[in-house]
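It is worth pausing here to work through a concrete case rather than discussing structure prediction in the abstract. The textbook approach is simple: state the sequence, then state the predicted structure, then interpret. We follow exactly that order.
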Amino acid sequence: MKFWKKVSIIFGSFLILVCFFLSKDIFTKVKNKSNFKLVENGMSKQQVLNVMGEPDFKYLNLKSDSVYYYDAPPLSSEGFEVSFNTHDQASKIK
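Step two, the predicted structure:
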């Protein structure tokens, strides 16, 4: 009986992990990582949106420039940011 209980716990844990890694959100974050390599300084907001899609967050920095933030995939240290200058061109990419 203990054997089957351990097997069911292991199998259940495996299913939860599979569901986590196969969720749509995870695929979007992985796509953010690959698409971010295509973003360049000088691109317009629309060009960045065409490459990256809608950001996860939008905010203004201290210079009143708008910043788009995109989440990173799991186990990544940080997300991706694109700052836009007053001419709505990408001016800082990190």
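Step three, interpretation. The beta strands are 57-60, 66-70, 80-84, 90-93. The longest helix spans residues 2-21.
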